[in-house]
Amino acid sequence: MPSLLNDPAAWSRIQFAFTIVYHYLFPQLTMGLAWFLVYWKWRALRTGDEKYNQAARFWAKIFGLNFAVGVVTGIPMEFQFGTNWAGFSQYAGGVIGQTLAMEGMFAFFLESAFIGALIWGEQRLGPRLHFLAALAVAVGSWISAYFIIVTNAFMQHPAGYRIEVDGLLGIDSLGAYLLNPWAWIQFAHNQMAALVTGSFVVAAVGAFYALRGLHPAQSRLYLRAGTIVGLIASLLVAFPTGDQQAKMVGKHQPVTLAAMEGRFAGGSMAGVALIGQPNVSARRLENPIEIPGALSFLAYGHFGSFVSGLDDFPTESWPDNIELLYYSFHLMITLGTIFIVLMACAGIQTLRGRLESSRWLLWILMLAFPFPYLANTLGWMTAELGRQPWLIYGLFRTSDGYSKVVSSGDTVFTLIGFVGLYSVLGLLFLLLVGREISRGPEEEAIVSRGGEAPR
Amino acid sequence: MIATWYAVVSFMLIVYLVLDGRNFGAGMLHWLVARTPEERRQVIAAIGPLWSWHEVWLVGFGGTMLAVFPKLLASGFAGYYLALFLILWCLILRGISIEVGGHINDRMWQGFWDFVFVVANTLLAILFGAAAGNMARGLPLASDGTFSMAFFTDFTPHGNVGLLDWYTVSVALFATVTLAAHGATYLTLKTEGAVRDRSARFARVLWATTVPLLLLISVESAAIRPDLLEHAVQNPIWWLGLLVTCAAAIALVSGLVTGREMLAFIGSNVLIAGLLATGAAAIFPVVLHSTLAPENSLTAYDVAAGPKSLEYAAVWWPIGFALATAYFIFVSRRYAGKVSVPRDNQGFY
């Protein structure tokens, strides 16, 4: 094993991991929040009730900040395919380039043409077109997610490709590539997770206002929408989408499933570890507390099903960071379970009309919003660490994918640059979002009356 | 097929540079044409709602290039490593300076972000200009079709070249002045009052400055790459580009002289597009020219994806482009006319 300090692939992996994790903090909120905006704009259109417009206007500002940071941190992602992963781009560009280009052509153009209209254009557009702008942005953001997930699904479970005469990959069937079954399940799971983030954030702001006794009408709106969508999305993210995703991993990447569960010895009646620390060098899970048979049942449908362990596979095919993979997966599951319980309590109180008087629950809702971000990140870490040592599962190794002409010195330089720039960006973002939230949704009404009349 | 894809990919980059070029230019002149905080909000409002729409053309270009010319992206992006990251960081700073600046109505806050806005836009114009110069001059391409380039070596455009040498610096200078002129032409169209008048003056002076600079880089290009002109005169697209450039120059000049702001702006867009198109036509079919040994050079045919990938792309690309054109019309109509700060500011104060 080359050490970290002289392995250029490692530095490029760290840089990509850092920039993608940071980037994805923003789109996950916009993809979830977009549908809240659509819903409120639609209610405003139907009922003419100004409170819905007020909610949409307030959240559009939060959305706009997230969108802007999402755009500026997203462009480096595409560029890094070429700058840091030239080997991969050269080998697979003929395939993955299709969806990256389609994302630009079909999703980003749509989103970016209408985002200005959504955030700045209320007075220029009028209510009906403004609703359509919200819808266009929401649809655009979800199309964008689909194309990116097709790209990732190809890396997890290649489909629709062929090997060209020069040994590089090309598309064989665009249909098979775009309709990769892995992509469908991953998309469903990921989008539900984005809705979880969106609804937790909406509910948290609602709880913040409710606890301080501010903006009661708006706060009720946020709490109601946030907890109901939050409950549905938290359930769907686990069943069926998360369950199906794990079954898919069990079917196509059995060594990954074994690593995710920290299972070294294969066997039937395989359990799910609730707690335990993988000791890779000793090849065992220490201090395990397991539900017997649960893994066999969840992955393959029967308690007696045989589940392979890591010992059944050669060490070269093991994911290269089993500990991190194991904890990412387990923490994600734990958080997902807590989300269901929390949102079930909040949903019941909402339906009973008592959420605003349940101060302890409001406190928890207010403080819970960072955790869906964490769970989303852990889910992606599970997917990406689980895929190792492959860049394209079974076809192309990560150690072959980095840019050979780029020295570690250059990669470390740009990584430091990103860490610095993104730290500043994060502080600014928190400052500005905090400011908008503390100013609240009602201030805006005064300002908009001072503006020009709609055309 | 491959020549068409070369045209498509070049076209997308040209659209990006023409669209975002106006923002680079407006950004460079921000302090010069707008003196008071209120005037400066006018400049930001002329860019604010549209910058991300412009910037995604760069993403569309990158994605399309990866799909049809994967080896070009792999070799070029890895080779331009540090320069590309500087561009990315400037794009990040430029974007947030627009978004963040308007959020707090405070002179010190906005003054700081105006500074970031000016610096990032200026650097972007210089960096894209230098990159264009590099494409014409060539790169230190090794026999395996890859290269790794320093920022500068000995400042000569031969052999083991760096990003910056006397030739690429002069192209960067030309690009910076041209984009500043383009931005001034745009601000003349979009703003009112003192900002408009100053922008109109800048547009005339800057466009006049581009003429000697263009002559200079033409002579330099002919000296450094004599093969380019020999190549170009046999390419009908090059002649077409030249014709379009001349027509656009006439439209621009008559627009500037007679005060027809829209005519001048259209002329400015087409002029820049025409110049870039003649450049793209002149280097074709070589996409990466080697300054070390001509036989290392990569042509569009060497870097293209497999035939079936290109066929599929030929199906969806026109659909995506038709949609993009529809959005373009929507955006242009919605944001037609002069900006109004109360209506088009970012709505935050």
Protein described:
The complex is a heterodimer of chains A (455) and B (349). With 455 residues, chain A is mainly alpha-helical. Chain A contains 16 helices and six strands. Chain A has helices at residues 8-47, 50-83, 86-120, 122-125, 127-156, 174-178, 181-212, 216-238, 241-252, 254-260, 294-300, 322-351, 359-368, 370-387, 408-439, 443-450, and strands at 161-163, 169-171, 272-279, 284-291, 390-392, 396-397. In chain A, the strands form three sheets. In chain A, strands 1-2 form a two-stranded antiparallel sheet. In chain A, strands 3-4 form a two-stranded antiparallel sheet. In chain A, a hairpin with a 3-residue loop joins strand 5 and strand 6 (396-397). The N and C termini of chain A lie far apart (66 Å). The model of chain A is unreliable at 445-455 (pLDDT under 50). Chain B has 349 residues and is an all-alpha fold. Helix content of chain B is 77%, strand content 1%. Chain B has helices spanning 2-33, 37-47, 51-68, 70-79, 81-101, 107-137, 166-190, 193-224, 226-232, 236-258, 261-283, 300-303, 307-334, 341-344, and strands at 286-288, 298-299. Chain B has a two-stranded antiparallel sheet with strand order 1-2. Chain B is globular and about 55 Å long. The model of chain B has no long low-confidence stretch (mean pLDDT 89). Chains A and B meet through helix 2, helix 3, helix 4, helix 15 and helix 16 of A and helix 3, helix 4, helix 5, helix 13 and helix 14 of B.
